[in-house]
Write a structure and sequence with these properties.
Blueprint (H helix, E strand, L loop, with lengths): L10 E5 L1 E2 L2 E2 L1 H17 L3 E7 L3 H9 L4 E6 L8 H15 L3 E5 L2 H11 L5 E6 L1 E4 L5 E7 L4 E5 L7 E5 L19 E3 L29 E5 L8 H10 L2 E4 L1 H5 L20 E5 L5 H4 L7 E6 L12 E4 L2 H14 L1
Parallel strand pairs: 1-4, 1-6, 4-5, 5-12, 6-11, 7-11, 13-14, 13-15, 15-16, 16-17
Antiparallel strand pairs: 2-3, 8-9, 9-10
Bound molecules: flavin-adenine dinucleotide (FAD).
Protein name: Electron transfer flavoprotein subunit alpha
Keywords: Electron transport, FAD, Flavoprotein, Transport
Pfam family, one: ETF_alpha
């Protein structure tokens, strides 16, 4: 299918929400979307879908969106791919956005796949960098060949250009002190009815899902743990943080893959990142380099991680961490 790409304008960000609470990646995409929209000199629109979600449209405007489109109906709560997809298809057909950004979450990945096909759009998944060229072409970059190379993907002949983006790779936009302009929010016609949907949610069970990307404190262990993650877990608990790991530790099976930090794992940017028994390979650094403070504990004073740490302790993690934990618990 060929489209007249000149008809497509603007950047849309899909504001993913669950029971009225926005997924943090939505605000990260809004800040990146703002940059792209400014470079293109085109508007930034927040797309809010759900039930009783008007407050998220307000918030999107205070976080930098020019407009918000709101599709508010019971049919959109909880998330299901078919009503969301049908509504999105209708909106894209009518409004013709040039770029659509979606969080690379479980929901975002499901949604993006579902909507890209009927929209005949190009979709680049799991992006870690975004840019636009002079002609408004989205340059969507993502690791490829198991992380050995970065691929930059363009979709020159289709619109919209769509991308799912990894959580944690961009700074979230902050809500500003701006007055919300009611004219900038548009409640759109809901084109989906419950009777037309194919799926029904019988029960929603929220499992014990690990999400280290949201944590303020991350305590990560590496090969130096030698199979014993107890000191890592204890310190993480004392600090109210999450346990994470290098790929070496994950490959050994000491920690589940959802906790891997790095190029082929998660990107975290906590206030405090403690790296114990981790050498500081570039692929690991890529996932934690934007942390506010990094503390490294390593027996090797020449370990590369010390070059990226604010504070370093040369020592055996099995001795150092329990002492740190005890000190913190005493406080
Ligand atoms: P090592 O490099 O073996 O370092 C262990 C460190 O522990 C050493 O510095 C040692 O001095 C120290 N140590 C040993 N004993 C103690 C002790 N008792 N107390 C304190 N310190 C001690 N890696 C990732 O982490 N994340 C990724 O996403 C990732 N993706 C990759 C993608 C590709 C394509 C490739 C090729 C590699 C990737 N890697 C990734 C692997 C990466 O290159 C490193 O091999 C890995 O990060 C090393 O993990 P480590 O630091 O735990 O282990």
């Amino acid at each position: 299918m060929t489209v007249d790409i000149d008809e497509y304008r603007g950047v849309w960000v899909f504001v993913e929400q669950h029971a009225g609470e926005a997924a943090p990646v939505s605000w990260e995409l809004l800040s990146k979307g703002r940059e792209l929209a400014d470079e293109m000199d085109e508007p930034l629109t927040a797309l809010v879908m759900g039930h009783d979600v008007a407050h998220l449209a307000d918030e999107a405007l205070t976080r930098g969106a020019d407009h918000a489109l709101v599709a508010d109906d019971e049919v959109f709560e909880p998330y299901r791919a078919d009503p969301y997809g049908e509504q999105f298809r209708a909106l894209v057909e009518e409004r013709k956005p040039s770029i659509v950004l979606i969080g690379g979450t479980h929901t975002g990945r499901d949604f993006a796949g579902r909507v890209a096909v009927p929209a005949h759009a190009g979709l680049t998944a799991d992006c870690t960098e975004l840019d636009v060229d002079d002609e408004g072409l989205l340059l969507a970059s993502r690791p490829t060949f198991g992380g050995d190379a970065m691929a930059t993907i363009k979709c020159p002949s289709h619109r919209p250009q769509m991308a799912t983006v990894r959580a944690g790779v961009f700074d979230a936009s902050e809500p500003g002190e701006v007055d919300v302009d009611a004219d900038a929010i548009e409640e759109v016609e809901v084109v989906v009815e419950e009777k037309d949907t194919l799926s029904e949610v019988i029960e929603r069970v929220v499992g014990d899902v690990v999400d280290i990307t949201d944590a303020d404190v991350v305590v990560a262990g590496g090969a130096g743990c030698e199979g014993n993650f107890e000191p890592i877990a204890e310190l993480a608990e004392a600090l109210g943080g999450e346990v994470a790991a290098s790929r070496a530790a994950v490959d050994e099976g000491w920690v589940e893959p959802a906790r891997q930090v790095g190029q082929t794992g998660k990107t975290v940017r906590p206030h405090l990142y403690i790296a114990a028994g981790i050498s500081g390979a570039v692929q690991h650094l890529e996932g934690m380099n934007d942390s506010d403070y990094v503390v490294a504990i390593n027996t090797d004073s020449n370990a590369a991680i010390f070059d990226h740490a604010d504070y370093g302790i040369v020592g055996d993690l099995h001795e150092v961490l329990p002492k740190l934990t005890a000190m913190i618990r005493e406080k």
